[in-house]
Amino acid sequence: MKRFTVITCLLAIISFTATAQIEEQFRQRGPQTTAAVAYDAVKKGNWIVGANIADIGFNFDSDFFTLNLNPRFGYFVSDNAALGAELQLGLDIYNGGETFRYGVTPFARYYFPEGAAPTHRWFGEALVGIGGSSEEDSEGDKVFSGVFGLRAGYAHFVASNVALEGILGYTQTSSDISVGNGSSGLNLAFGLQVYLPGRNQ
């Protein structure tokens, strides 16, 4: 009986040790959720490429589907400051028709050194451009208008050159048909941005 107890205890200790080692290996090999690269990503000469997605939805009562997508590219003219352009693309599909929105908005983005950390950065952004829309069977078809907006956002780096972003902003257009991330006014968007090193990096 004593031998059985000793063997059982030894097996329990070995099993516990093996389980702890396996858990530690799994923890080390688990999916990467953060990367300490925020300072390097926003250096002069780097590029930013990505897209924001907002207002994805479907209303079952009115059969109304909406999607807004804003692909973008930019160049860091100095540390923390990037200039670029964003495409404003939107689609509404509803019972009896559809509306397609489009535009081009150059932007200036600044990443604040205050509150910065190795894994994330806060930023502000301004954009000014033109936009229009094409509404099926409408006299307002292909109306061009000025577009401007101000945004604040948070970039969290999940890999060496990839960040997930959340952006809260105000976008306004003089067109009667909305342009960009929804109607003129406040909007919330989420994006995936890739930070590419410049040739001299």
UniProtKB/TrEMBL annotation:
Organism domain of life: Bacteria
Signal sequence bounds: 1-20
Keywords per UniProt: Signal
Protein name (database record): Outer membrane protein beta-barrel domain-containing protein
Species, as recorded: Pontibacter oryzae
